[in-house]
Amino acid sequence: MIFCIPLFSKDTGVRINHTEFEGRASFGANFVEDEPEDDLQGHGTACASMVAGKRAGVAKKANIVAVKVLNKDGSGMISDVLAGILWTRDQEKGIVSMSLGGPYNFIINLAVYLTVNSGQFVAVAAGNENSDACGTSPASTATAFTVAASNYTNTLAWFSNYGRCVDIISPGTKCLLANATTGDFSRASGTSMATPLVAGVAAIKLAENATLTPATLSALILKHLY
Predict the structure, then answer these.
(1) Known catalytic residue: 224?
(2) Is residue 181 a part of any domain in this protein?
(3) Domain residue limits at 137
(4) Is 192 a catalytic residue?
């Protein structure tokens, strides 16, 4: 099956020429001032590879669209993140993967809500502070699909955020991922790694049935856990 569903990865950018993407990655938008579209930090490339990489990814034929909202230090301005969220809202129907977060912010949550309401499925990281995800954004957005991380024993990883705002727990410990610097592979842990795995599953399901709404897609993913 060929998956043509676009996956919008909002992060530090993506090294689109990494062999892991087989030419399926492209630049969508860059909201970071005074930086090129390229991934200068590596986090975005790593996460994108777990969504749709040929080796590390779940949806191995999906198209990656890089939306750069974080800088070379892995941080960013709220206005840039907000612009990136709203940009994806206006694109063709697909899957949005957001391995980023910060303190609770009503405006960020509202932007994610509007994006989901437009038809985009949005997977977001719960965070790595070992605290309640409801105190962070965008993880606390009610309509987002919030992802915590598990460990080797299939229980909550020690670092992962938790709580009623979490929708699912996904593998997030020492995950294989693409390395933007070396062009090879490495391993990392975090809810940033757990989130793209769920986004990849969502992409496969949406490719099978393009009429699925974000709410129906969320319910379908949870149903198949049991």
Answers:
(1) no
(2) yes
(3) 6-223
(4) yes
